[in-house]
């Protein structure tokens, strides 16, 4: 095994593909710029013509008259149980949400376990039970699976992959590319809870907080939003990399600027406190039961009303707009009227949490 | 981490669920009886009503007029490169083959990487290239993906999950349950190559052999077999646990006996030699480019002809039949006319190889 690669992020200026790093570093899994570079400069060229589009979180396929969404996600969270959830419900809800963000109703899910030799069955059972309960709650069937075991000392007890198939209405067309200047940006509720909950119980980082993970399946909320008949332009669940990563991606993909009103951001006091303690920006902290919606400004009130009628959207609120200025960039406008650029995270701002 | 569980397989007699073992052991990932017990006694009860049928290798879903096959597989092979292939082509072909065994044409695939911090990018790139080449060769698109990174010392460089969607003809009905007394059992070619190739280059076990992995996508061979119009009853790719595990599963599921003719088994001399050296039975050694077909005896010649016209079926041959005796059991008939029971493997007979 080669030596650990070290990167001084503060002074790092390397425009070259993959930033000249010869090895995988934690940042490649952070869902930010380094993950994007790995996909763009390694996976896509290597896959060649077999790769379809940009290997995004969820793909839409046409099969005869049927339109399907297809998504995959691996979960390597430590610890596997945290305030408000376990790796099991997280894995089910995460893939349900990836499907829901294209407007699909989840239909079927696969579950693949990579288990570490020596992992206790009485730790595994509650994780599997949480998966079953989450799947039942989301109305999705667990239809096929796989189990592998790796030598003790490798793995981390359990790594989990879920892949999912959802069904799309013929007319649904929700994608980041459709975000347009003037659109309102809505968040479905408080941000930062999942990341803070997981960090509060990580080895070496324990701290007291009342924050619990927001892990939840969002397809019902999306169905309620679709039920309004409003033309939803883009949806994203702000998981790894948080609101910052999700909105940066939408801004870059659509070629619009996005401006958030800092005062409008729903950040619970406990999340704000924990972020202060840890030196983190809540915009970069992961959520697992929230969505960001980009909708025509004139329809924002109608969408908000539908969202607030749903338990998972009760605190929905407009946090900003798409603008013509600074295309591809996310900025927040402060209470004093200044603006601050919120860049795409490079690698891991946080301990790995999803 | 609890102490390592030890099992004396020779003297082990424990009818209780999960054999009283409190921890995950390597055998739970071996694709044999212990994997089956983990699914039956832990995953299925825990998943509850969310679990559909028996969580088999591949599920068939009806969506409107469309019939889909859906499959998932994780790959944790060590080393990641071996004579005849890499974890990359193995992962693509493995999921193509799981889909093909239900008669489906592969349509789209997801790729999820769990990478170890410190893994060299110049080791990762050829693996990704092998995936792209295998997907192109199989005519399947890589449409969605995920990348996670785990701390150095965990993982094993790279773990890989592929999940796949295939499309089934309206009338295709290929499943183990349909194996019937009198049916012929066909194998598409030589057995034992993949397992021996991987073992020949494992740390601490290196030995000289000319055997290379048979990893290959089998959907084209299956399409040629379907093209005959013969009613194929059951198909299986004999991967983990080899021909023994695959045929035991068919026998148990269908409630038939299966009798193989030992002399008819196509075992290359080099595989036989290596198995002799290692004390292994070739029937338990993994294959990654072979299939077993259970077809009406009267149609066996027609199927063999179609198979032999395809490069991956050139050595196809009948190796046995389904019989009314000993339902649920697999036996081989020796050259001297005796029979030998070939049981479902309990756990790992082999180093982990897929």
From TrEMBL, chains A, B:
What InterPro entries does UniProt report for this protein, alphabetically? Answer: HypE, PurM-like_C_dom, PurM-like_C_sf, PurM-like_N, PurM-like_N_sf
List each copy of the PurM-like N-terminal domain by range. 57-167
Q: Which organism is it from?
A: Mycolicibacterium poriferae
Short name of one Pfam family: AIRS_C
Q: What is this protein called?
A: Hydrogenase expression/formation protein HypE
Indicate the segments forming the PurM-like C-terminal domain, all copies. Answer: 181-326
Family according to the record: Belongs to the HypE family.
Gene Ontology biological process terms from the UniProt entry: protein maturation
């Amino acid at each position: 095994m080669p030596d650990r690669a070290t990167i001084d992020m503060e002074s790092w200026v390397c425009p070259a593909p993959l930033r000249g790093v010869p090895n995988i570093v934690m940042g490649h899994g952070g869902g930010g710029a380094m993950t994007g570079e790995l996909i763009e400069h390694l996976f896509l060229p290597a896959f060649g013509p077999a790769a379809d589009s940009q290997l995004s979180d969820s793909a839409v396929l046409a099969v005869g008259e049927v339109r399907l969404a297809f998504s995959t996600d691996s979960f390597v969270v430590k610890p596997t149980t945290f305030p408000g959830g376990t790796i099991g419900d997280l894995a089910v809800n995460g893939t349900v949400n990836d499907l829901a963000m294209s407007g699909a109703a989840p239909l079927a899910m696969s579950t693949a376990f990579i288990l570490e030799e020596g992992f206790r069955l009485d730790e595994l059972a509650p994780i599997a039970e949480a998966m079953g309960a989450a799947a039942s709650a989301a109305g999705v069937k667990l239809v096929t699976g796989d189990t592998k075991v790796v030598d003790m000392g490798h793995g981390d007890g359990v790594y989990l992959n879920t892949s999912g198939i959802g069904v799309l209405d013929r007319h649904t067309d929700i994608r980041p590319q459709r975000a347009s200047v003037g659109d309102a940006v809505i968040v479905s509720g408080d941000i930062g809870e999942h990341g803070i909950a997981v960090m509060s119980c990580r080895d070496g980082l324990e701290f007291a907080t009342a924050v619990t993970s927001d892990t939840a399946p969002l397809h019902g909320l999306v169905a309620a939003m679709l039920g309004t008949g409003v033309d939803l332009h883009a949806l994203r669940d702000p998981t790894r990399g948080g609101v910052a990563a999700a909105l940066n991606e939408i801004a870059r993909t659509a070629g619009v600027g996005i401006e958030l009103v800092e005062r409008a951001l729903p950040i619970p006091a406990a999340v704000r406190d924990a972020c202060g303690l840890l030196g983190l920006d809540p915009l970069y902290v992961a959520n697992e039961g929230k969505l960001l919606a980009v909708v025509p400004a004139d329809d924002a009130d109608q969408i908000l009303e539908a969202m607030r009628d749903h338990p998972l959207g009760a605190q929905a609120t407009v946090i900003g707009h798409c603008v013509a200025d600074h295309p591809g960039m996310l900025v927040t406008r402060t209470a004093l009227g200044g603006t601050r650029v919120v860049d795409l995270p490079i690698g891991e701002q946080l301990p790995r949490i999803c």
